[in-house]
Specification:
single chain; alpha/beta; Aspartate Aminotransferase, domain 2; Aspartate Aminotransferase, domain 1; 7-stranded mixed β-sheet; 3-stranded antiparallel β-sheet; globular; binds pyridoxal-5'-phosphate
């Protein structure tokens, strides 16, 4: 027998626990046509006799079950989501409306070019906007996400260097890089060499000069880097690389700090990717759809993945599938089309001034938080920061409280945790990116919560160490969950 319990949403059990034999979620009148034998229709032995323990529930039970579960989810529509590096900004709902317009949502990827002129025009318009924003000279919209864009970009570098006789062996990566950068280099067949940052948290030009040999294919740099600091020597970095025939790859996932202010193409970047699902407004998380367009300079253009969009006779747009030097396809179709549509809607709705204002607000908000917390949390790098700030847990660690504990306690105050323990060059990192979406009132609440947790860490560390106190489950055994996941419900064995 089930018992009445407070807070039905939070105490919702498994759907299997709602099951009673014979319950159905549908009701149909008696059959007035001949019955088809499913085994005969579907080919005999593929039919399962029964599914052990399959839940038997009514329609309203199904609806309530999943509606209750949906309230466990925390998203940017529920509150501030201050993950650093990921740019969890609010995504205007009008972009969703546009992406769902019938002619857009229902288009078939194999529709002939002649019947898809509107969609091709969307791709062309978006390409133009992104080229203007980045200062690059050609672009592919194909890659499905940031890491995929990186791989595409490095394959372009490899193809270009190969066409000049030698693909080279190494990719240089600063120690402040995002983890996808070394993974990309390795998958593209390169050795990774780390570049140590200087005391300011940026690339050390002398270290770089010594590292760039004829073996080096490219440097992959994130700008602003994962400390939220702008690599102000980016122009000099490009010169050092180019003098040795190497390329400059920029990880543009943090473009939320640059749009409308700085164009990487003008700073000497040869190839870069954007994360449309971060900077240009698509709801993301949990591996949902993204898009990682790659912008290049002219010399890399012949290698872009096919198909490439071109304007033909009479202004008709068409996709060109055969180009002799192309690296091939990196995706079956053109990116995730719905994400591209959202990005264009966002860019056009903001306009140039709006995009610039978003950048400025993102930087202002991050610095407001930095100022509000720098007397209670340790700030290892003091350089001015852009769209995110990175503290360490050094002051709290003395009381046994680490960054992960502070993050768990933040949940009790109604906020999603910030990014924990990343970037790796800051021991015990708290990486905070509020984005431009948040009001001053919300930022003040966040600062107040973080200050209160700093006080608790000092005066009553146990409160922080045992957090969260207000959630359905407390601390999960994350190691066992990762090593021995139980992914399937099994019928309890009858006694
Ligand atoms: C998010 C991110 C990536 C990877 O992007 P995905 O779309 O998750 O593959 C790469 N670099 C940086 C700096 C990022 O923040």
């Amino acid at each position: 027998m089930k018992k009445a319990r407070p807070h039905v949403n939070q105490n919702e059990g498994l759907i299997f626990e709602h099951s009673s034999p014979g319950k159905r979620a549908w009701q149909l009148p008696p059959l007035d046509v001949p019955e088809v034998d499913p085994a005969a229709a579907l080919g005999g032995d593929h039919i399962r006799e029964s599914i052990g323990g399959f839940p038997e529930v009514s329609e309203v039970e199904v609806v309530r079950h999943f509606t209750r579960l949906s309230t466990w989810n925390y998203g940017v529509d529920t509150g501030l989501y201050p993950l650093g590096s990921c740019t969890m900004k609010y995504n205007p709902k009008v972009n969703e409306v546009v992406a769902r317009l019938e002619g857009i949502a229902g288009v078939h990827p194999y529709q002939p070019d002649a019947l898809a002129q509107g969609c091709l025009k969307i791709l062309r318009l978006l390409s133009g906007c992104l080229l203007e924003i980045t200062g690059m000279e050609a672009i592919t919209l194909q890659p499905a996400a940031g890491a995929h864009g990186e791989l595409t970009g490095i394959l372009l570098v490899r193809a270009y260097l190969e066409s000049r006789g030698n693909p080279r062996r190494k990719i240089l990566i600063p120690d402040s890089a995002h983890g996808t950068n070394p993974a990309t280099a390795a998958i593209a067949g390169y050795q990774v060499e780390n570049i140590r940052s200087n005391a300011l948290g940026t690339v050390d030009l002398d270290v770089l000069r010594r590292a760039v040999t004829e073996e080096v294919a490219a440097l992959m740099i994130t700008n602003p880097n994962t400390l939220g600091i702008f690599e102000e020597n980016i122009g000099a970095i490009a010169e050092i690389l180019h003098a040795r025939g190497a390329q400059l790859y920029m990880d543009g996932a943090n473009m939320n700090a640059l749009v409308g202010m700085v164009r990487p193409g003008d700073a000497g970047v040869d190839v870069m990717h954007l994360n449309l699902h971060k900077t240009f407004s698509t709801p993301h998380g949990g591996g949902g759809p993204g898009a990682g367009p790659v912008g290049v300079k002219k010399h890399l253009e012949p290698f872009l993945p096919v198909p490439v969009l071109e304007k033909g006779a009479g202004g008709r747009l068409r996709l060109i599938h055969h180009r002799p030097q192309a690296i091939g396809r990196v995706r079956a179709f053109t990116g995730n089309f719905g994400v591209l549509v959202r990005a264009l809607a966002y860019i056009l709705a903001c306009g140039g001034n709006g995009l610039k204002a978003a950048t400025q607000d993102a930087v202002l908000n991050a610095n407001y938080i930095r100022k509000g917390l720098e007397d209670v949390y340790d700030l290892p790098y003091k350089q001015p920061s852009l769209h995110e700030c990175v503290f360490s847990d050094r002051l709290q660690a003395g009381h046994g409280v680490r960054t992960g504990d502070i993050a768990k306690r933040l949940i009790d105050y109604g906020f999603h945790p910030y990014t924990v323990s990343f970037p790796l060059i800051v021991h015990g990192a708290l990486m905070i990116e509020p984005t431009e979406s948040e009001s001053k009132e919300e930022l003040d609440l966040f600062i107040e919560a973080m200050r209160e947790i700093a006080r608790e860490a000092e005066q009553e560390p146990q409160t922080v160490l045992a957090a969260p106190h207000t959630t359905r489950v407390g601390r999960l055994d994350e190691v066992t969950a990762a090593r021995r996941p139980i992914l399937r419900w099994q019928e309890p064995i009858a006694e």
